Amino acid sequence: MIVRILGEGQFEVDDAAAGELNTLDAKLEAAVNASDEQAFTAALDALVSRIRMLGTALPDDTLEPSRLILPDAEATMDNVREMLSGEGLIPG
Amino acid sequence: MSVMKRVSLIFKAKANKALDKYEDPRETLDYSYQRQLEMLTQVRRGVADVATSRKRVELQMNSLQQQQAKLEGQAKQALGSGREDLARDALTRKSTLQTQFTDLQTQYQSLQADEEKLTAASQRLQSKVEAFRTQKETIKATYTAAEAQSRIGEAVSGISEEMGDVGMAVQRAQDKTAQMQARAGAIDELMASGALEDVTGTPHDDIQAELDRMGGGHDVDLELARLKGELSQGEAPREIEGSAAGGAASQGQPQASRPAQSADQPQAGDGS
Question: N- or C-end of chain A: fewer Cβ atoms within 10 A?
């Protein structure tokens, strides 16, 4: 499956890793719900580094949409909340 | 729902909007391509803006460094002629500049990182736009409107996602650049206000400089001690000059206190 890390590009990740990524993603979700910035940073960091490690960067001229999209590694919880709620935040 | 899924749904909704806009999907291709070209221009402008900001910060860093060297020279000169007050003044200003310099250094690194990221994003988008153009021509030449539908959907979704990603990066970089421009403007003002001018030339009346002195007092004391050490060690010719000047000064100013004399006076008083 194709996963995008915002600001970094797309990665091809083996479907077998889906379970592990979901577990990490659940932690991220829990941190957002609990408004726990520290847990959020840790969870985002874990998820981003795992995808970088497991994934293979797709060539630049790929035109395929991603199945999952992850906020960029430096995003704050507020950035993510804005992204999830904001209409018209994403240009293009 | 998971964060990654929610984010990707938001991007998909955006792409679908573009796809639904025209009845003939081939028109969608042209419309999307126009948007891509606009976005490319925007990203390139973003890279140029960040680079301009970075260069401005670099120039300010250079001029702060020059000012610091000048103030240190003045402090040395002031100490050499026995004007510790003036030396302290110069070093206080130098310490203000050091704070500014450290702040600029952080900004510089951050701008440099942004510039690299945006440059990479711009190259990625460029490659995708080229790939899209090729596909667009093929689809238009080969397929009827009905057949083209599914092929167009994927290409447009893929590139729309990239444009959203790049677009956010450009926006963020522009917001940050605007903030930094404001701060750079403040430093320019500080320089223009005379707070950073030659100590011997202007009276020390700037409030900010006074406040900074309170914050940077410790550093100034340390630096004063260091400069004194430098002056007393290995600068023999200057020492002679200095003591000669000191002697001349005390001759010219008899009211300058002499601790040895004042120690004698109470004894004389006791004796009477």
Answer: N
Quote the Cα angle for B133-B134-B140, to 5°: 85
Are A25 and B4 a contacting pair at CB < 8 A? Answer: yes
Angle between helices A77-85 and A37-54 (to 10 degrees): 80
Q: What would the two tokens of residue B86 be?
A: 């003036």
Would you tell me how many other CB atoms lie within 10 Å of the CB of residue B233? 9
What is the CATH classification number for the domain harbouring B84? 1.10.287
For chain A, positions 18-47, list CB contacts with chain B under 8 A: 21-22, 25-26, 28-29, 32, 47
Taking CB atoms and an 8 Å limit, are A90 and B14 in contact across chains?
yes
Q: Identify the three-state secondary structure at position A55.
A: coil
For residue B50, give Cα distances in angstroms to A89, B56, B103, B118: 21, 10, 17, 9
Using one digit for the tens of pLDDT, what is the confidence trace for B226-240?
888 988 876 555 444
pTM: 0.71
CA gap A75, A80 in Å, rounded = 7
User: How large is the ipTM?
Assistant: 0.89
Residue-number span of the structural domain to which B36 is assigned: 10-157
B183 & B140 share domain:
no
Contact A25 B135 (CB under 8 A): no
| Domain count within chain B | 2
